[in-house]
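Exercise 7.
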Amino acid sequence: MFYVDRLCEVLASAETLSNLRRVGKSYGSGAIKVEPRALERVILPRKAINDCGLLPMPRSRQLSLLA
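Solution. The predicted structure, written as tokens, is:
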């Protein structure tokens, strides 16, 4: 499984979705709108990270993705 797939699992977890509701705006249909700056405040639950086997990406690799 690729890193991005694992990250998607973490982002789709119930705990993460609950945290998204804290920083975003919820709509009647269940949609959540989160502004880019508010996304920085979303807490990714440690349990979801561990369950998906998501390991931290080295900072140098993170920076290379922005180039």
